[in-house]
Amino acid sequence: MLKVALPKGRIAEDTLEIFTKIFGNEFKFEDRKLTMTQGNFEFLMVRNQDIPTYVTEGAADIGVVGLDVLEEHNADVLRLLDLKLGKCKVCIGIKNEDKLDYSKPEIKIATKMPNITRNYFATKATAVKIIKLYGSIELAPIVGLSDAIVDIVETGTTMKQNGLKVAEAIMDSSAHLIANKNSFIVKREEILSLYHKINDLIN
Ligand code: PRP
Predict the structure, then answer these.
(1) What is the pLDDT of residues 167-186, one digit of tens each?
(2) Residues 67 and 122 reside in one and the same domain
(3) Structural domain tally of the chain?
(4) What's this model's pTM, rounded to 2 decimal places?
(5) Which residues line the pocket of ligand 1, CB cutoff 6 A?
(6) 6: CA distance to ligand 1 center in Å?
């Protein structure tokens, strides 16, 4: 049995489309059900941010997750394939009228991604105060909660509609197929067989 963790959220639809092409129209999660079995595969419907945990712990053998989430978790997993979907950037956003001021003794940054943020500003030798939020990040600079944000930019619409602009891009992200290191030894054939099917579809 190969356990596959699939993401909810922004990359869910495109990911499910790939798996539907491989497994046929039977490939459907019932209403609120979080697992689905098809032949030798068990699919798990997992929150995007939790996928590295499921795969690292071996609760899932493989999974699909955004590179930004992987970096944030610093997850010890194998990166098998860039699925080239769910493309976005992790960016620093500031108000349209502002400049990112590195001369400040401390920059206040609101973000869902504290580790990516801390690592990036460490390379700039700049002190940051990180304000951890769980969503609607673009609101923070508008109401004076932070000087800047670090967040996902896909179309740029959310920043634009809230009077923000990109000051710097930190990294590119897209969905990746990942594997638990031990599973890749024990279930190598099954994993590679699925890997090749996905690879053929996207390349
Ligand atoms: C993400 C991200 C931005 C927005 C970017 O939020 O945090 O807010 O999407 O997309 P855009 O550049 O296409 O506008 P999400 O929709 O995941 O909701 P959240 O604010 O609840 O995290």
Answers:
(1) 999 999 999 999 999 999 99
(2) no
(3) 2
(4) 0.93
(5) 10, 135-138, 151-158
(6) 19
